[in-house]
Amino acid sequence: MESTVLIKWLIIIGLPLLCLVLYRVILRTFFGVIIVPEDKIGLVTKKFVLVGNQSLPEGRIIATDGQAGFQAQTLAPGVYFGKWFWQYDVTFQAFTIIPTGKIGLVLAKDGTELQQGAVLARRVDCDAFQNAEAFLRNGGQKGRQTAIMTPGSYRINTFIFEVEITDMINVPDNAVGIVTTMEGKAIESGQIAGKMIPNHNNYQDTDTFLAAGGYKGLQEQVILSGSYFLNPWFAKVEMLKMTEIPISHVGVVISYVGSDGEDLSGVEFKHGNIVGKNHKGVWAEPLGPGKYPINPYIMKVEYVPTTNLVLNWAASRSEAHQLDKNLSTITVRSKDGFTFNLDVAQIIHIPAIEAPKVIARFGNMGNLVTQVLEPTIGNYFRNSAQDSDVIDFLKSRKERQESARSHIGTVLEQYNVFGVDTLIGDIVPPESLMKTLTDRKIAEEQKVTYETQMRAQETRQALEKETAIAEIQKEIVKADQGVLIAERIADATVKKATGDANSMRLQANAEADRMKLMASGEAEKVRLLAIAEAERTELTAKADAEKIMLTGNAEAGKILAIGKSSAESYKLAVEAMGGNNFTQLKVMEAIGAQHIKIMPDVLISGGDGANGPISGLLGLKLLEELGNKKTNEPKGDNL
Asked: For a designed S-S bond to 111, which of 142, 186, 241, 523 qualifies (C-beta 3.0 to 4.6 A apart)?
C-alpha cells in the first residue's frame, strides 16, 4: 500500500520534471524548440552567424538580415523550431498595454537619422510599432516619434522601442485649448501664430499637419471640450475659459492675425481700420451675448455695454462696471471767487452697430471715459460756474442741467456715443456762504413766524369778542322766548273767553226754549226776559273776552319791548365798555337800587390813649340827641 502511494507521488512530481528536462535538454538542444506563452512575445538575440557576414551596418543596433545581435523580428505566442540555445537567446517579454485614458509615446533606438531641424521622426508603416523590421526597412527614424499608441495591447520589441505612457489631453466644458506646436515650419514674418491647417483632426494626426505645411509655435486654431490623442512631444495645450459676452453687451473683436482686409469704416472715419471677419484689425461685426472659443493670444475682445451706462463724478459712489472708479467730485470756482463741489451723473448709450467705431477710436471703454467724458464734463461745469455767482448757480440748477445735457450730447455725437442725460447731484457751497444763507433763511422764517403769531392774536381777539356777543345772545334768546310765551298765553285766554261766551249763549238759548214750552201764558214775558238775559250775558262775555285779549296783548308787547330793549342795551354797553367794565357797572347799579350801604354814615373813632373809648361813647350819645331833636321839630320851612 505504501509503495503504491509512493509511486503515485513520483508520477505526479516526476512527470513534469521529466518533461521539463526533455524540453530543456532534448527538444531545446537537438530540435531548437521554443514555446512562447500566449501573453508573451519572444525577443531574439542571435549569438553568431554560421555562414555569411556577421556585422551590422554602421550605426545600426538591430539586425534585419540575419546578422548577429538583437533581432528586429520577434516571436509571437506559439511553438518555434531551429532556435538552438547555443546560437539563439530568446527572452520572453510581456505585451505592452496602454490603459484607457492613456496614450503611448514611442522612442526608437534605431533607424535613420532625423532631417536637419526636425525634432520628431515621421510616421512609417509598421503595424503600430509591432513590426520592427518593417519600421527599419520603410525608413523609420530614430528618436521620438510623431505617431502614438492608442489604448490597447501591443507586441512591442523593446530592443528597439521604448514606450512612455502618459495621459490623454482632456479639455473640460466651457473651456478652450490653446495649442502650441514644437514641430513645423517657421511662422511667417509679420505673423504671431501659425495659420489654420485643414484635415489634421485637431492636431491628433501630426504627420498630416506637418505634411500640409503646418507651422511651429502658437496656433490660430483652438480645440474645444473633449478628449484628444495629442502627442505632448508635438503639441502643448493650455486650458483657458471660453470668452463669455454677458447680456446687454457686445464684444468687439480685435484680431492680431490674418490678412489685411478692406477698410469698411468709410471715408469719414479716420481713426483706424474696421475690417471684415477673419482679417487683421477691428472686426466690423461685433459678437453678441454668448460664449465663444476665442484664442486670447491672437484676438482681443473688448466688452461694450449696449444699455444705458451711468457714470458718476462722485467720490463716494461708483457703478458695478467700475468705469467711473477713478472719477471724483468736480471742483469749480464761481464768478464771485468761491470754490465749491458738485456731483454729476452722465448717462450714455452706445448702439451695437457703433461699438466697433468706438473701440477703433479709443481702444477700450476706459479710454473713452478718460479721454472724452472726463475732460468734456469737467470743463463744461468749470466754465459754466465762472459765469455765475454761487447763489445764482444754485437757483438756476434746472436750467444749467438742461444746458449741460444739450452741450455734452452734441459733443458725444462726434465720438459715436449718444448722450442720454446729464444730472447734477449734490452741490456743496462754501461753508461760510452756507452760514450766511442759513442765517438769512432763519431770519425770513422768523419774520413769517412773527406775522403768523400776530394774525393768531387778532383771531383770538375776534374770538373773544364773538364769545361776549354770544353770551349776550343768551339773554336776547330768553327775552324772545318770553315774548313768545306771553303771546301764547294771551291767545289761550282769548280762546277760553270765546269758548265761555259760546257756552253761555247756548245755555241761554236752551233756557229760552224751555221757558217757551213751560209757560205759554207768560211766553211774551219770558221771551223778553230771556232775550234780555241772553243779550246781557252775551255782552258781558264779549266784554270779558275783549278785556282778556287786550290785557294779554298789552302784557306780551310790554315783555317783548322790555326784552328787546334790555338785550340791545346790554349789547351796546358791552361793545362800548368791554365785558369787565360792564359787569362792574351792573354791580354798582344793583347796590344803588337796593340802597345797600357799603360805608357807615358816621365813623366814630376814639383818640389815642386811655380816654379813647370814652370819647367814642360820648360822641355816639351826642349824635342820638341830635337825632331826637330833629324828630321833635315841627315840619315846615324855618325862615
From this structure: 142
